[in-house]
Amino acid sequence: MSIRRNNFVNGVAAAALVIGCGDAAPPVPLSWKQLSGADTALVERNFDPAQIQRGEAVYNANCVGCHGPGGTATPEWRKPGPDGKYPPPPLDSSAHAWHHSTEVLKKTILKGTPPEIGSMPAWEGKLTEQQVDDVVVWIKSLWSDEIYDLWYKNFEGK
Q1: What is the mean pLDDT of the segment spanning 121-138?
Q2: Among 53, 34, 40, which residue's Cα sits nearest to residue 149?
Q3: Do 72 and 24 reside in the same domain of the chain?
Q4: Taking the CB of the first residue and of the last residue of the chain, which one, N or C, has fewer CB atoms within 10 A?
Q5: Residues 36/30, Cβ–Cβ less than 8 Å
């Protein structure tokens, strides 16, 4: 009799857990501070406005055809094309440019993407080092303050 009772109690407890899970309140959105664990103010950007303008000019002359106006790219950038390659991603806060250090961003511009993944050409020998630096600063200027803060603390501020 006690074995049956234990099985019954265990069954009721399991059912309560399952039912309780279904009645759980929807997740509460977390604030930026909670997500980033930031106890301090956002990192301040000290970009040179003239460098941002130069970077935008270089971008508009060389990159806009693939990455779109303002670095917005195309809506289908996450889906490979018929050739299996991914289209150019947005360069703003909505994609993954901010997941890379300054050095990786520069290397990608200079060397292009691996041909099996994308079609970004190498700009080495076509753009000067200053032009590449200017474009990278312009790209960073597109990121929201929160994204820039997260990027800086994870890649540049270490």
Answers
A1: 98
A2: 40
A3: no
A4: N
A5: no
Q: Is the pLDDT of residue 50 over 90?
A: yes
How does DSSP assign the chain, residue by residue? -HHHHHHHHHHHHHHHHHHHHHTPPPPPPPPHHHHHT--SPPPPP---HHHHHHHHHHHHHHTHHHH-GGG---TTTTS--TTSPPPPPP-STTSSGGGS-HHHHHHHHHH---TTT--PPP-BTTB-HHHHHHHHHHHHHHS-HHHHHHHIIIII--
- pTM of the predicted structure, to 2 decimals: 0.74
Strand partners, 124: 127
CA–CA dist 89, 108 (Å, integer): 13
Mean pLDDT of all residues in 29-54: 76
Query: How far from 5 is each of 1, 16, 69, CA to CA, in Å?
Result: 6, 16, 69
**Residues belonging to the chain:** 158
57 and 10 share a domain?
Answer: no
Q: Residue 100 falls within a domain, yes or no?
A: yes
What pLDDT digit, counting tens, does each position of 92-108 carry?
A: 999 989 999 999 999 99
Domain that holds residue 57: 49-156
